[in-house]
């Protein structure tokens, strides 16, 4: 039996989290008369996920594109890794404010990243007509930023937990959600999978954790998630593996073990089947730079 080698990055997602919130004003001038607006432009995106939640004012996503679109208060854009990031304060507004985060999702966050896609790529959701959600999401954004900037010893973990709260709240308005009416036992199973992703779990052990037989649980899980139990588990393992390949120099054998694969050979075989590229080639092609920090908003 191979000795378990723990990852040197036990809190990978929390350590790589970057969060901020504040006001945005024109680059020059205080009255909004300057044509130069605060703009974030990254043509190749970043290796992580990026979310932007507008709190005040109006922003334009992909302002130079024919199919650009606006982000108003209580709307958000979600941009996956390596997709262009291009947002700017709308010309009609002298200032605005937004919450942003760059993050590598925990397994428990993955189901809440399936947003409706715009015609030019990024995910988009709006809750501006949902008076119930507005104060909860706004409060969570402020708390997430406050945690991240605090002196708490676990500030990044607290911020990451609050970011997951934000994603779960926003997901309530997703018209294409496959999680509407999610069975509580499936929700518990998702958390169990997230906590035990590196262990040799199977449908029977997951079912036991929620007090069901394997056959009954598999039926409920498939009806709720529209995929099989082990298909879902493997997708989450491969997602974690992609992050570790791109963001660490851990040996592939260690990544395989820490993502729950029985051997590096089996991991490479499954990775190649899903992505048509070997883990080594994926690592070589992935962007290895750390995600850039957002420019500090004006005071």
TrEMBL record:
Residues 187-285 form the HTH araC/xylS-type domain. GO terms for molecular function: DNA-binding transcription factor activity; sequence-specific DNA binding. Residues 22-42, 278-299 are annotated as: Disordered. PROSITE patterns: HTH_ARAC_FAMILY_1, HTH_ARAC_FAMILY_2. Keywords: DNA-binding, Transcription, Transcription regulation. Pfam families: HTH_18. SUPFAM superfamilies: Homeodomain-like (SSF46689), Regulatory protein AraC (SSF51215). InterPro entries: Homeodomain-like_sf, HTH-like, HTH_AraC, HTH_AraC-typ_CS, Tscrpt_reg_AraC-type_HTH. Transmembrane segments: none annotated. This is Helix-turn-helix domain-containing protein.
């Amino acid at each position: 039996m191979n000795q378990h080698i723990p990852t040197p990055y036990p809190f990978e997602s929390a350590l790589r989290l970057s969060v901020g919130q504040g006001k945005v004003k024109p680059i020059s001038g205080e009255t909004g008369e300057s044509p130069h607006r605060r703009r974030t432009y990254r043509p190749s995106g970043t290796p992580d996920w990026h979310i932007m939640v507008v709190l005040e004012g109006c922003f334009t996503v992909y302002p130079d594109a024919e199919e650009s679109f606006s982000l108003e208060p209580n709307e958000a854009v979600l941009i996956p890794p390596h997709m262009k990031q291009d947002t700017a304060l709308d010309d009609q507004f002298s200032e605005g404010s937004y919450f942003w985060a760059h993050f590598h999702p925990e397994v428990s966050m993955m189901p809440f990243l399936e947003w409706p896609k715009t015609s030019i790529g990024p995910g988009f959701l709006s809750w501006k007509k949902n008076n119930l959600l507005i104060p909860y999401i706004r409060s969570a954004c402020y708390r997430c930023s406050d945690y991240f900037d605090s002196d708490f010893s676990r500030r990044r973990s607290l911020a990451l937990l609050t970011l997951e709260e934000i994603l779960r709240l926003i997901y309530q308005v997703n018209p294409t959600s496959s999680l509407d009416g999610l069975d509580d036992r499936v929700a518990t199973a998702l958390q169990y999978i997230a906590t035990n992703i590196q262990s040799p779990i199977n449908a029977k052990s997951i079912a036991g954790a929620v007090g069901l037989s394997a056959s009954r649980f598999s039926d409920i899980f498939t009806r709720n998630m529209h995929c099989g139990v082990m298909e879902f588990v493997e997708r989450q393992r491969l997602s974690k593996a992609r992050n570790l390949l791109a963001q660490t120099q851990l040996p592939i054998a260690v990544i395989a073990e820490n993502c729950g694969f029985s051997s590096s050979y089996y991991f490479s075989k499954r990775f190649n089947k899903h992505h048509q590229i070997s883990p080594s080639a994926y690592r070589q092609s992935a962007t290895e730079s750390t995600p850039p920090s957002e420019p500090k908003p004006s005071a």
